[in-house]
Design goal:
The protein has 220 residues and is of the alpha/beta class. The chain is built from 9 helices and 5 strands. The chain has one domain: Rossmann fold (3-Layer(aba) Sandwich), CATH 3.40.50. The chain is 54% helix and 10% strand. The longest helix is centred in the first third of the chain and has 25 residues. The chain is globular. The relative contact order is 0.18.
Length: 220
């Protein structure tokens, strides 16, 4: 039995490695980020194993990426995600067949009423920080996408995350910016112009999504 479990774990590790190897083959410039991408996977894997959640934030194109990444995590991405037999038994068949298991992920860009009200009544620089304060719990992860790494609103959100006991994962440009000093893991892609940085961020969070999906497929 122990040998079977060990073999299954080894096979799963090979699958995880294959996703990362494939990413580097398609984007050779990201080889410098390989270790940090692996660390990001391990950070998220550990959080999800503890039933924690992922909060994602960003501005402009990075806000779109935050929403995009959330979409990959909240439904099947690289494979179909049927509900567990236990969950299917607790639901009417027609509902259970139309649902999929998902990761608990919240895009902080998805609260327009709060964002506009808080920005107008209190402080627009603290909108993400307010959401982290309200929704974040110790053990959760805040992922920040920032091409410069210096955006004040995401840096403030990261500061609140650390105060609340959340881990911080940052995806940024080559310099890292201020967010690097606030992050537990910072993936600094080898580019500086905003569009070039964002072109690297997308395949990275796609790779992380595939790795996590495969890692948790047998848990649901």
């Amino acid at each position: 039995m122990a040998e079977t479990l060990e073999a299954a774990a080894t096979f799963l590790q090979l699958i995880m490695a294959a996703h990362l190897i494939n990413l580097i083959e398609r984007y050779p410039a990201l080889e410098v980020c390989q270790e940090d991408i692996q660390r990001a996977f391990e950070l998220l894997e550990s959080a999800f194993k503890d039933d924690a959640k992922l909060l994602i934030s960003g501005n402009g194109g990075s806000a779109a990426d935050a929403d995009h990444w959330s979409g990959e995590m909240l439904k099947g991405f690289g494979q179909v995600r049927p509900l567990s037999s236990g969950m299917r038994q607790r639901l009417p068949a027609e509902i259970a067949e139309g649902l999929q298991w998902a990761f608990p992920v919240i895009p902080l860009t998805g609260f327009p009423a709060l964002a506009t009200a808080f920005g107008n009544d209190v402080d627009p620089e603290n909108v993400f920080a307010q959401l982290v304060l309200a929704l974040g719990r110790s053990g959760d992860v805040l992922a920040v996408l920032s091409t410069s790494g210096n955006s004040s609103n995401v840096c403030r959100a990261a500061a609140v995350a650390r105060a609340r006991g959340l881990s911080v994962l940052a995806l940024t440009g080559a310099a890292g910016g201020k967010i690097k000093g606030l992050a537990d893991v910072c993936i600094c892609v080898p580019a500086n112009p905003t569009p070039h940085v964002q072109e690297f961020h997308l395949p990275i969070y796609h790779c992380l999504s595939l790795m996590l999906e495969d890692a948790f497929a047998k848990h649901y």
